[in-house]
Design brief:
Length: 178
């Protein structure tokens, strides 16, 4: 459980950075780091379906928030912050690839069951009479969970469509000073 404590410490630190930083784009990126930390916490707690949903929603919301906050001219790349941005990007890639290596190395060999619950599912599926194993698990054992995941995806898509639309904005309204 030390992994979970490290992830929670990372999430708390990223949340504090998101609140304290003055730059809005940096704050959005720090909030995205909190969401990625939550995704990793779900993986540590053996909930990969929740981790996938969190990752999808987090990436979509991060793209939307960055699009809403960043301008086309990118003033921080001219003012000398490109060195910091490059170092932060390279360090993130190195940390991500290192963690991915250790995570993939710890997976069981193909064909070996990672959990003992598969026998329970197979015995339960035999009672349903369905031919497709995946459909039987989703319908009989995971119906509410699947309904929740569909609701989350629907909400994320509606949010993307609501923010991405350009109805009502004209160039004259944007260029006029207040």
């Amino acid at each position: 459980m030390i992994e979970l404590h490290l992830i929670l410490f990372f999430m708390i630190a990223a949340a504090i950075i998101a609140v304290e930083v003055k730059d809005l784009v940096s704050s959005v990126v720090a909030v995205g780091a909190v969401g990625i930390g939550l995704c990793m916490a779900f993986l540590v707690l053996k909930a990969p379906d929740l981790a996938i949903m969190q990752l999808v929603v987090e990436i979509l919301s991060l793209i939307i928030l960055i699009r809403a906050t960043i301008r086309r001219d990118l003033p921080f790349s001219i003012s000398g912050r490109w060195v910091f941005n490059t170092l932060a990007t390279v360090s993130f890639i190195v940390v991500f690839l290192t963690l991915a290596y250790f995570a993939l190395r710890s997976l069981p060999a193909f064909g070996n069951a990672a959990m003992k619950v598969s026998r329970f599912y197979i015995e339960g599926i035999m009672k349903t009479g369905l031919d497709n194993v995946v459909s039987a698990i989703i319908v009989n054992f995971r119906a509410y969970d699947t309904l929740g995941e569909i609701a989350i995806l629907f909400t994320a898509i509606v949010g993307v469509l609501a923010i991405a639309r350009r109805v009502g904005y004209t160039k004259e309204k944007i260029d006029e000073p207040n």
